[in-house]
Design brief:
The chain is an alpha/beta fold. The protein is 19% helix and 36% strand. The chain has a 9-stranded mixed β-sheet with strand order 14-15-16-13-9-12-11-10-17. β11 and β12 form a beta hairpin.
Length: 307
């Protein structure tokens, strides 16, 4: 049921060195630097995104994710969702407009999994980067690196998946697109969507709360994913696995690490869903094939390297 949450809006990542992180996200991934603030944070976006930023980099002593933000329809929705979050039992923090440059007031809350999320209704509209709004060309000619199309989703590792599922479905209006069930039928992975995408956020059962697995960026074609693999080798970037295909979502993918150890994904394709579809189910005994469809075996780094 639609609760007024539109789509993923941004993610703030902790990095150990801002300049090396900028070289990674701007020159390799192909995001565009849009701004910096008094705290030293760097704001970036992918070229098709119409709002000012989708990735914020903050220099810190440890890598990881500070929070993921979702855009809501309007201020009325934001007020109503704030009440719903409080009624669910979430601790809610109101953050003033402008604390993130170009972003309106934000409502931050912690999911039972330990991760921080936030909702906002307003962000500076800058339009797609490098092309006109009237009679636009197909793409800008001066894109860098992998030429990321959009920030797509994040995958989190944490506990209390059932309570987190209730929060995202009953309060925020997500639906379950795909899942992994263990032998006794307990859900150990959940892929949640607001849209026709395979997922907008996903959670995998993990004993420790609040761990970050990856931020994912969409590319248009399999050839773009192969080109991304070439660029990863050309730049001696640390690779996790790929190019390959997922069983879950059936997206074509490659995983790699930023200089701080945060995992990134670029992918193309994948299944589409509508909210009336039954969830796609994979069994835990087939998890190797579910995650890496071709190898049919798990890469140990994929399960254990988290920030």
């Amino acid at each position: 049921m639609n609760k007024g949450v539109l789509r993923p809006g941004h993610v703030q990542l902790r990095v150990l060195n801002l300049e090396s992180a900028l070289a990674h996200y701007r020159d390799l991934l192909g995001l565009i630097e849009m701004d910096r603030d008094e705290q030293g944070r760097i704001y970036l976006k992918a070229w098709t995104e119409v709002d000012k930023f989708s990735v914020v980099l903050r220099e810190a002593a440890e890598p990881g994710m500070d929070f993921m933000g979702f855009k809501v329809v309007d201020e009325d929705s934001l007020n109503r969702l704030t009440e719903d979050l409080l009624n669910f039992g979430c601790l809610v923090e109101n953050i003033a407009a402008g604390e993130l440059k170009g972003c309106g007031r934000r409502v931050r809350f912690q999911a039972p999994s330990g991760h921080f999320f936030e909702l906002y209704a307003e962000k500076e509209y800058t339009g797609k980067w490098g092309i006109e709004e009237v009679n636009p060309e197909a793409w800008p000619r001066n894109l860098k690196g992998m030429r990321a199309v959009r920030f797509d989703h994040c995958l989190m590792y944490g506990d209390e998946l059932e309570a987190t599922y209730k929060l995202f479905t009953e309060v925020l209006g997500f639906y379950l697109a795909e899942q992994v069930l263990d032998d006794d039928g307990t859900r150990i992975a959940q892929f949640l969507s607001l849209s026709t995408k395979a997922h907008d956020v996903a959670f995998i059962q993990h004993a420790e709360k609040g761990k970050f697995h990856h931020a994912s960026f969409f590319l248009e074609t399999w050839e773009d994913v192969l080109r991304a693999a070439d660029l990863i080798s050309m730049t001696d970037t640390s690779i996790d696995i790929g190019p390959t295909r997922h069983g879950l979502t059936h997206g074509k993918t490659i995983y790699f690490f930023d200089p701080s150890g945060n995992r990134n994904e670029v992918f193309c394709g994948g299944d589409y869903n509508y909210s009336d579809h039954k969830p796609v189910t994979w069994l835990a005994k087939d998890l190797g094939k579910a995650i890496f469809y071709h190898d049919r075996a798990l890469n140990e780094r994929f399960l254990t390297v988290l920030t």
